[in-house]
Amino acid sequence: MTKPLRLLIAADTFPPNVNGAATFTVNLASGMAARGHDVHVVAPAASRRHGTWTEEYDGQQITVHRLPSDRYYPHDWLRYVKPWRARHHMRRVLDEVQPDVIHYQSAVVLGRAAVREGAGRGIRIIGTNHLMLENMGDHTLLPNFLQNIAAKIWWHDAHKTFAETEALTTPTRRAANFLEENGQLEGVLAISCGLRTTDYTPRFEPKTPRSILFVGRVTGEKQIDVLMRAFQQLNNVPDLRLEIVGGGDQKENLQKLSRELGIDDRVLFHGYVTDQELRKIYSDATIFAIASIAELQSIATMEAMASGLPVVAANAMALPHLVHEGENGFLFEPGDVGGCATALRTMLEMPREEREQFGRRGLEMVQVHDIDRTMELFERLYYGEDPVSVGKDSWNEQDHSLDDVVEPVTGALPIIRKPESNAQDGE
Questions:
Q1: Mind giving me the DSSP string for 35-93?
Q2: What are the pLDDT tens digits along the chain (427 aa)?
Q3: In terms of Cα–Cα distance, which of 284, 209, 262 is closest to 239?
Q4: How far apart are CA 213 and CA 232, in angstroms?
Q5: First to last CA, the chain
Q6: For the range 390-396, what are the long-range contacts, defined as Cβ-Cβ under 8 Å and sequence gap of 24 or more?
Q7: Beta pairing partners, 70
Q8: How much is the CA Rg of the chain, to the nearest whole Å?
Q9: What 3-state DSSP class applies to 396?
Q10: Rounded to 10 degrees, what is the CA torsion of 163, 166, 172, 176?
């Protein structure tokens, strides 16, 4: 029998944060604990109260090391560990935990610190990148030209973190290509974040009122305003409403926009909801719509597919990986209000039975993202299996539907080119 591992997951966002990276991290932690591993998570404290506690997620006991953190006020909820103190805190956690494996979730503050401190200790390091810089652009308060400079600096620094990583993953093949191109990398593995499809309940029956649903952070890169303007063009479609689930810094601005567009009586802002409430909202919806330009996978879109919903999505980043034109939904060009409206109208005006077939096809397609498969792939990496072997299985099972979009990864072990600079990193 294979010996259980002591796993340390380093994450800059973790519940009670609500976002895709936090969702994946808690699923990873509980999934590995369910497989018998001793799981520790190191993350910023969710308040000024910090320390180490045993926390329960999905019925599993997880040791969570919540480090001293500060509120990042340009963002509506983000807390962070001071970068110049991160390595100090990480040294203490590593001394205490003595992990067999480190799995970091981004090459930012805590992921960076975990790699810098863990690499010299002979700990196996696995990395997953959930970060899209577009997700942070609205919150930096920097003008565009400085954002571009900052992005170059970040990529250069992140490269040093990636260079110490024995296997680097990201949720989709398209996201892996993006990471390879921008990070001067090769051999990035595409491993789905996964979800448990049995948690969701498709309802293939007439629904009243009909609704277009968006679920996610209410922030700029999600381009919810595009959905709202497209929805305004559907004023002559009877018995229809737009539902927005999630919170974020743009909620008040979007509520104001709904009044300006004259659609506020047909737009429902749910804010944050419980998992049980969210699953019911999915089941009751007619169409799922997403205009985001910065999705590395989009767990919300997968949840919608598991709920039997057809999808209308922007043709950007990883969304075409999930939404195949004319099969389980329609795509429109990013920012194209008219194109979005046309796709929504086409979906709404087709016979219900035909629209139902889109939903059933999506339900079939999402099965390859089963979370148990994701846990198996990461566990194999933790035990030191050849990343090429793991990557081939991941491609065969999860990315075969992208044959007409990108080529699969083949060849030797993942290669991460070292940065030209040999300068030593400071704290």
A1: TT-EEEEEEE-SSS--EEEEEEETTEEEEEEEE--EE-TTSSS-EE--HHHHHHHHHHH
A2: 479 999 999 999 999 988 888 989 999 999 999 999 999 999 999 999 999 999 999 999 999 999 999 998 776 678 999 999 999 999 999 999 999 999 999 888 999 999 999 999 999 999 998 876 555 555 555 566 666 777 677 777 888 888 889 999 988 887 788 788 877 788 899 998 888 899 999 999 999 899 999 999 898 889 999 999 999 999 999 999 999 999 888 999 999 999 999 999 999 999 999 989 999 999 999 999 999 988 878 889 999 999 999 999 999 988 998 999 999 999 999 999 999 999 999 999 999 999 999 999 999 999 888 899 999 999 999 999 999 899 888 754 444 443 333 333 333 333 333 333 333 334 4
A3: 209
A4: 15
A5: 41
A6: 390/167, 390/189, 390/191, 391/187, 391/189, 391/190, 394/189, 394/190, 394/191, 394/192, 395/173, 395/190
A7: 80
A8: 21
A9: helix
A10: 30
What's the one-letter identity of residue 45? A
DSSP string, 127-174: EE----THHHHTTS---HHHHHHHHHHHHHHHHHHHHT-SEEEESSHH
195: DSSP letter: B
**pTM of the full predicted structure?**
0.77
Query: Which domains are delineated in the chain?
Result: 6-194+370-402 (3.40.50.2000), 197-368 (3.40.50.2000)
DSSP 102: E
Q: Could you tell me the CA-to-CA distances from 173 to 136, 176, 221, 394 in Å, in that order?
A: 22, 5, 21, 10
Q: Which residue has the tokens 């599993």?
A: 60
Rounding to the nearest 10 degrees, give the CA dihedral for residues 111, 116, 117, 123: 80
Kindly state the tokens that stand for 318.
Answer: 């990883």
Up-side HSE of residue 355: CA atoms within 13 Å toward CB?
Answer: 24
- SS3 for 108? coil
Is residue 394 within 8 A of residue 368, CB to CB? The reply is no
Q: How far apart are CA 46 and CA 402, in angstroms?
A: 38
Say if CB 377 and CB 393 are below 8 A apart: yes
77: Cβ–Cβ under 8 A, 6 or more apart, which residues?
17, 247
Alpha helix ranges (H) inside 293-419: 299-306, 319-322, 337-349, 352-365, 371-382, 387-398
